[in-house]
């Protein structure tokens, strides 16, 4: 049976178990057991041995996430960065080179530039909004291209199909971090990417109460390597967090629609304010890549950024005036959040890189929640007075 997105989000991985002795749960239970008794030494019960290797609650989530991306495989990790680390250490080795988008989440850039460099894996960063920049940065040692689209926090868009063609031509692996749009609005694998990475902490979990990460993919060989290292390294998602993420994922479609509705309304409001220098939201026709964005996604998501006229102190003061928007890192939860990337999420990016790329001290990133639209706009109206 071919099912629609929400049907899969609700049912896949959680089909009731009608076997003798099973209870027919419609929501998968939290299997806290760290180990599973065997029928005999040579025969693990139902394939489960030890929770780091495999756990029924995590397995349910992995199946659901794979289904949402129309992928063959899904793997769940203890955080988005644990997922990213496992991808890199599974597929690359000392001497290999990565081409990365120049506007990645600060933590991903820190992982590549400050951690994997110590293991001989180097990264060059390019503005991947211009596809040729990606191809020009490829060296004989390049093995992998790592992009986000939209990027964090400047919401730049990469032409995923065009970059996938370049990756294929040069025999490289294309990884797309799809955290900002979630599988509801964008499916990188269907655009030609090899691997999709998520921080499920964000939209997939959706309630700011479960840290997690995931990978979805179709390639059998990459899957074997990643699954091996998921167990060997051990950065797995706990049963409880798997349960919370499963629960969140069921409402992904309805949440994403409301996030987008509110983000568009706020972006329109900010665009009309004299106190705002520029508003960046891929759903605004003024976004330089509005057409590209429309062509490869079915929506624009719930994150926008804008630049306030003034100084860092003015930006801080503005945030303190907001009542509904908490000043906090992260995004993708039901509640609205605001942050200043230069001193928060992207503080680990060297100042000269931040400034060159446009992450100024007055750039404010907004994760627009799913509260009542008018309440969010009014909060901004009052804070801008
Ligand atoms: O926080 P963690 O679950 O490890 O996910 C890391 C990560 C990966 N990719 C993207 C695009 C992300 O935005 C993040 C985490 N980002 C934030 C915490 C933030 O406020 O931007």
What does this entry show, briefly?
This protein has 14 helices and twelve strands. It has helices at 5-11, 56-68, 80-91, 106-115, 131-136, 160-170, 182-185, 220-233, 239-249, 252-271, 290-296, 312-321, 351-357, 373-384; strands at residues 73-77, 97-101, 122-126, 142-148, 173-177, 195-199, 213-217, 276-280, 303-308, 326-327, 337-339, 363-367.
Task: Give the SSE layout.
Layout: H1 5-11, H2 56-68, E1 73-77, H3 80-91, E2 97-101, H4 106-115, E3 122-126, H5 131-136, E4 142-148, H6 160-170, E5 173-177, H7 182-185, E6 195-199, E7 213-217, H8 220-233, H9 239-249, H10 252-271, E8 276-280, H11 290-296, E9 303-308, H12 312-321, E10 326-327, E11 337-339, H13 351-357, E12 363-367, H14 373-384
Parallel strand pairs: 2-3, 2-4, 4-5, 5-6, 10-11
Antiparallel strand pairs: 1-7, 6-7, 8-9, 9-12, 11-12
Helix pairs in contact: 1-2, 2-9, 3-8, 10-14
The structure holds ligand P1T.
């Amino acid at each position: 049976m071919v099912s629609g997105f929400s049907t899969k989000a609700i049912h896949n991985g959680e089909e009731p178990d009608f076997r003798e002795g099973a209870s027919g749960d419609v929501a998968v239970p939290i299997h806290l057991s760290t180990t599973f008794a065997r029928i005999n030494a040579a025969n693990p019960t139902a394939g489960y041995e030890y929770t780091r290797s495999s756990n029924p609650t995590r397995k349910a989530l992995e199946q659901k996430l794979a289904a949402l991306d129309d992928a063959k495989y899904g793997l769940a990790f203890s955080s988005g960065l644990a997922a990213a680390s496992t991808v890199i250490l599974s597929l690359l080795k000392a001497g290999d080179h990565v081409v990365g988008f120049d506007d990645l989440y600060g933590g991903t850039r820190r992982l590549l530039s400050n951690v994997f460099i110590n293991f001989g894996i180097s990264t060059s960063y390019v503005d991947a909004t211009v596809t040729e920049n990606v191809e020009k940065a490829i060296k004989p040692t390049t093995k992998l291209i790592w992009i986000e689209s939209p990027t964090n926090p400047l919401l730049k868009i990469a032409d995923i199909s065009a970059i996938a063609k370049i990756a294929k031509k040069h025999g490289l692996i294309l990884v797309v971090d799809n955290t900002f749009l979630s599988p509801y609005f964008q499916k990188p694998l269907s655009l030609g990417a090899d691997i999709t990475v998520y921080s499920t902490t964000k939209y997939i979990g959706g309630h700011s109460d479960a840290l997690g990460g995931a990978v979805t993919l179709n390639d059998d060989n990459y899957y074997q390597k990643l699954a091996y290292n998921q167990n060997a390294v051990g950065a797995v998602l706990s049963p409880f967090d798997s349960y919370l993420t499963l629960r969140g994922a069921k409402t992904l479609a309805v949440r994403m629609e409301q996030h987008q509705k509110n983000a568009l309304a706020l972006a329109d409001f900010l665009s009309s304010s004299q106190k705002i220098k520029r508003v960046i939201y891929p759903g605004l026709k003024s976004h330089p890549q509005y057409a590209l964005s429309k062509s490869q996604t079915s929506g624009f998501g719930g994150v926008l950024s804008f630049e306030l006229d003034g100084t860092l102190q003015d930006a801080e003061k503005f945030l303190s005036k907001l009542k509904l928007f908490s000043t906090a890192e992260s995004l993708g939860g039901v509640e609205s959040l605001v942050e200043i990337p230069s001193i928060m999420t992207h503080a680990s990016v060297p100042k000269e890189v931040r400034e060159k790329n446009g992450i100024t001290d007055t750039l404010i990133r907004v994760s627009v929640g799913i509260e009542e639209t008018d309440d969010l706009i009014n909060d901004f109206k009052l804070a801008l007075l």
